[in-house]
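yo

u said u wanted the structure for the complex thing, so here. seqs first:
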Amino acid sequence: MLEVHSLSKTFGGLKAVEDVDLRVGEGEIVSLIGPNGAGKTTLFAMISGFLGPDRGSVLYLGRELAGQRPHQICQWGVVRTFQVVQPFANLSVRENIAVGAHTRIRARSEAMERAGVIARQLGMGAMLDQPAGALTVAGRKRLELARALATEPRLLLLDEVMAGLTPTEVAEVVELVRDIRASGITIFLIEHVMQAVMSLSDRTYVLNQGRLIAEGTPAEIAVTPEVIEAYLGHGAAARFAVQRGGHA
Amino acid sequence: MEFLGIEIPLYSWSTVIGSAISGVFLGAIYALVALGLTLIYGVLHIINFAHGSLLMLAMYAVFFLWHLFGIDPYLAMLIVVPGGFLFGYGLQRSVIGKASHGRDEIVLLVTLGVAIVIENAALFLFTANERSVQVPYDLDGIDLGVTFVVWPEIAALAGSLLITLALWSFMTRTDTGKAIRAVAKERQGARLVGINVEHIFAVSFGIGTACVAAAASLLAPTYAVNPQFGYLFVLIAFTIVVLGGMGSFVGALVGGFIIGITEQLGRLFLGESLGLITISVIFILILLFRPTGLFGQKV
Amino acid sequence: MSDRARVIGWAILATLLLALPLYVTSGRWIDFIELTLFVAVMGQGWNILGGYGGQYSFGHALFFGTAAYLQALLQFRYGLSPWIAMWFALAGSILVASFVGYLSFRYGLRGSYFALITLAFAEAFHVLARSFISITEGGRGVQLALNQDPERAVATFQFNFADDFLKAYGFYYTMVAIMALAYAATWWMERSRFGAQLVAVRENEDAAQALGIDAFRVKMGAICLSAAIMALAGIYYVQKFLFIDPGIAYGPSKSVEALFAPIIGGLGTVLGPLVGALFIQGVGEIAKEFIGMFWQDRPGVDLILFGIVLVLVLGFLPRGLVGLIEDAWRRLVPRAGGDA
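structre next:
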């Protein structure tokens, strides 16, 4: 469904993303992990049209996304959420979700109806008439998700949707994401919360300092030396290997 | 010659240079006004719409000091500048600071509100009639060949440069100056090291107003004041600050001179009324194509 | 408050306004209400771009003045009927709005920068109107010929010499009609997809884009609609006063008048500009009476008050008078069951 080829972006002297190739197949849940500053959000920004890549291409169902504007990309079925949640603070929860619904629905009343349906699906029925600004962090994350779903995407880009949630809340959102995939939506997510990554992902890509250093199932990448080093520092992989050897 | 139906006269070089030189003198005063504005922006991130009306108020003060007490406008600086500082300090502390929370457009509107109050208070108290100061030396000066510069113009240039220098030393050498620069750079950090940020805001606003008061003294011998005076200045001041770069000292100076010269040349070639459009055009072009200005930092 | 309650409220207001001549005979009161509606219309125009769209313009006179000049000049120079000229005036204003909007939004100007560039454009047009005397009559202004033939009152859209009814109420009802148009348009917009998208762009442009909204197109739509409403005000002004000059058309007074009412009344609401206009016109009248008692009539008092109210509202009443009323309503009328 999504194919990224040689995607690169440089800011001044910093190579934020360098020659990244990846693919997301239809119906998959694919995750993108890596230490802070690895370039994950920059990658998302390029896929969703908020940044233009310096080099490379982003193909979605055969269509070139690179250089397109964000709203157009959303119209085609790719929608992203933001790492730092961006609710429409002065609008109610229902109105927030309705904005998403309006991507596909013209009539106001219908959009508001649909917003209600989606809210209830995500367990937000009780908060429909509250201003979005009054929600907790968890509520806002859920709202962000609801809004994105209302646009009827085929590919959902989730940027650290679990950040700031308690373990219970994380478990709830993990279930939600599973349900979303079950409804036919492909998911590509950036995550730091390993609990979520391990339990959700079909496949994982690991980004470090702008370059892809590993790809595989969660279980595979957990023991890949380059990944361990990226997170725990140079030599850590060797130390772990020795430790394991010592306990054998 | 004709261009789009406008007569553009072909002047001799000496006339053009003469015009440019008077633009330099005008620019010096503009630079002083712009300095205050850019300081206020650099520290408080406020685009002070009231800046022009504060200038107008200061000019009225200079006028009344002369009219009622016979004080020479340049001497009046000794009264008006501290007075301006106090007024600006109070204004920021009690009005602008209190009413400004949220987006910067809100703050802009607050300063607009203040400007409206000041302008109309002046209109109410002083009526719309022009007031001008008459000094005995405003027609004497130095003959430069291409043009004749009168003492007020020379005083304006000298005064501007001196005050700018004084301000520069203040900002770099004194503790308060350093505190101001700290707040401008990193507000939260400054708070954390114990700087009273609200006080610094008010001091900065006060200094900005003091600059304007000084400029008023320098302008008084040459320009008459009426309540609308400030409004005309506002667009010019903004253009300079945007051209020079918001928050940049050097930018305000350079911008001031550029605009001063441009305005005079514009007046020369396009006539009194159309000449002013050069300001608007420059402003629009900068906003569209280089909003950070010549010396501003990219956000 | 439900939509049905609102509709009833507006219907009552409409009836009161339409039936005005039945219970108000004083010309002065008619003028007062007419002027209030005029300010309310300009305020609604500004509100569309500023309140709903979140783009604060400091140069809204640009759209007023362009329409006014076109309306005046087409009659003055080419003897065009005012009923035909008005379409050109409307189109001209929208064209200028598209131009300014295109430049500003294409180059991503937001917030204060947008406010300043609209100011610059208004000033530029001010200077142009003063300078291109061959086109605009310059500082002298355009004076339209007064029609004194009652038979031609409607044709020339001038009611000063019409029959009794039109003479007294012609321009009043014109204003009511314009207001009905402008407010109905705003009401409709608020409940449309465009309105929802506009408000989303105001709240958070990036998030809105991520949700499929073409922010540029939405903002362009807003500025054009806003300009159209200002144009109606400009057309009315020319027909009523038969005179326009650069200061009136493009000067700061109209720009400031246009933003007072919606900010004080309540940004992003249909009722806001009307409440705001009523408030400032009312306070202005009282102030002038009061001052007139102690000093002779001196200009500026009302604006001092408006400036003070503006600062107070910005600082302490972000949702304006309508917000205040809504809060009071909510406290006095507790909902049964409601949104638990």
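The longest strand of chain C covers residues 142-143. Chain C has one domain: 3-332.
cya
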